Amino acid sequence: MSLLEPVAGFKAPPRLKPLLAKAWRYGLSTSGPVATSGAHFLASLIFVRDLAAGEFGLFSFVLVIVPFCMSLIAAAAVIPVTRSLGEPADIRAHINATCLKFHLLLSLLATLCVFGLLMAVKAAPAPASLLAVFGGLLTARWFARCFAYVRGDMHRAVASDMTYAVILTAGLVALVLAHRVTLFSGAVVLVLAALAGLLPLGRSYAKLQLEAIRDGRIRDYLPIFRDLTRWSLLGVFFTEVTVNAHAYLVTFFAGPGAFALLALGMLVMRPISLVQSALPDLERPIMTRAAAAGDLKGLARTERDFLAALLAVWTGTMLLAGVLLLGFPQLLLKKGYSAHDVILVSLLTATIMMIRNFRTPLAVKLQAVGEFKALASIGTTSCAMSVLATFAILMLFGPIASLGGIIAGELVIYYWVRRLGKEWTARHG
After folding, report:
1. Any idea which of 73-77, 160-164, 236-240 has the lowest mean pLDDT?
2. Contact by Cβ (8 Å): 65, 113
3. Quick one: pLDDT band at residue 314, thresholds 50, 70, 90?
4. Does residue 91 sit within a domain?
5. Rounded CA gap, 172 and 74, in Å?
6. Is the backbone of residue 216 left (phi > 0), alpha (psi -120 to 50) or beta?
7. Among candidates 167, 180, 201, 158, which has minimal Cα distance to 40?
8. How far apart, in whole angstroms, are the C-alpha atoms of residue 152 and residue 206?
9. What's the whole-model pTM score?
């Protein structure tokens, strides 16, 4: 039976069944991230219209920091849970309990990290505190939804994303109707939405979490760190610096107001950006199972499907960007931003996202087959390239041109993951 038959109420032709099944799987898995992206897009539209450039820059900076925290928790706690799929039940349960407890510590550290960075760029303490709590809660929710994916419970993960998006959208609309849009009130809505997003994960997850708090031991994470996650964490850190060096450098050296222009231009690219962050959590377990079973054809097929899905979302994002920037520029340009500058940033960001489309499936496959040390080594090279190029271009030519440094870093990553992927295939093919 096709996955679509219970929903659409028709019997799919045999030739179409595989295609429809893939469309349904990717459609369902991306619906949550796309809804979340839509809610963040709405938040950005509202904040760019009603907040000062500096405050909008702070909010946009948070939307850079928090995904970094989410990537770190995925590398530190989700990957061990995923890799445990091939272990006996008792070992798998022990790893799950350890990671369920450890992720709470990481979420607390995410809260402190967001608060510290916001205070460093001179944010007001009250909204900075709320945005930090939002960062910690969203990081914890990300682990929980990824844990649901690993357990094969995709519907709860999607429900969590949808609930977060609906509550955030409703709260933002209420603020607009009440004429109460401020950075503080927006932060309150973000915190409430993140809390609501935890509810659909259900009592079973809450029970596992409580049992892990009681029975899990943080010290049991040390062997996991030594044998597995130290390399994945290094890879995530270096990759983050490579892909978002401009955000940190521009915000710290030129101020949140200068970053606001870059954030506005990148705003229309957010759907593909979020899908690039979310799809690995769906595909990594599938690739891990295929690699463990020696199914190289299945591994290659998943990689191709992954790339096709990213290219489809990128195309849709470009169409959306064209409609907004050319048909309804007034939605984005209320605060005196230059249309030329916003379009230029959008095109540069689209270039970055296209390169990332090709290197992300390769990197996830290498994670699935355990090449974490090699990926960390790649990250070191690309990080140095990206930071040096971005800083030099920023100092010489300004914030917009600094995106050229990110493009250079992305090209370095793509070259090396492609080469490493070919070498792995040659050894195992």
Report:
1. 236-240
2. yes
3. very high
4. yes
5. 28
6. beta
7. 167
8. 17
9. 0.81
Indicate left, alpha or beta for 209 from its phi (over 0: left) and psi (-120 to 50: alpha): alpha
* C-alpha span between 320 and 314 (Å, rounded): 10
Q: What is the pLDDT of residues 287-311, one digit of tens each?
A: 988 988 888 899 999 999 999 999 9
What total of structural domains would you count in the chain? Answer: 1
Q: What is residue 370's DSSP assignment? A: T
Share of the chain above pLDDT 90, in %: 53
The band of 6, judged by pLDDT with boundaries at 50, 70 and 90, is very low
Q: 12-31 in b/e burial notation, b at 16+ Cβ within 10 A?
A: beeeebeebeeebbbebbbe
**How far is the C-alpha of 373 from the C-alpha of 367, rounded, in Å?**
10
Minimal CA–CA distance to 65: which of 101, 32, 30, 112? 112
| 124 found inside a domain | yes
**CA separation for the pair 147, 152 (Å, rounded):** 9
Q: How far apart are CA 355 and CA 348, in angstroms?
A: 11
- Structural domain for 149, as ranges: 18-428
Q: Which of 36, 7, 35, 39 is nearest to 23 (CA)?
A: 7
Taking Cα atoms as reference points, which of 249, 241, 239, 243 lies closest to residue 396?
249
Question: Which tens digits make up the pLDDT trace of 359-398?
Answer: 999 999 998 888 888 888 888 888 888 899 999 999 999 9
Q: Is the pLDDT of residue 7 over 70?
A: no
Confirm whether 11 is domain-assigned: no
What's the residue count for the chain?
Answer: 429
Q: What is the pLDDT of residue 3?
A: 43
Residue 10 included in any domain: no
Torsion of CA 141, 142, 144, 145, to 10 degrees: 110
- Rg of the chain over Cα atoms, rounded to whole angstroms, equals 21
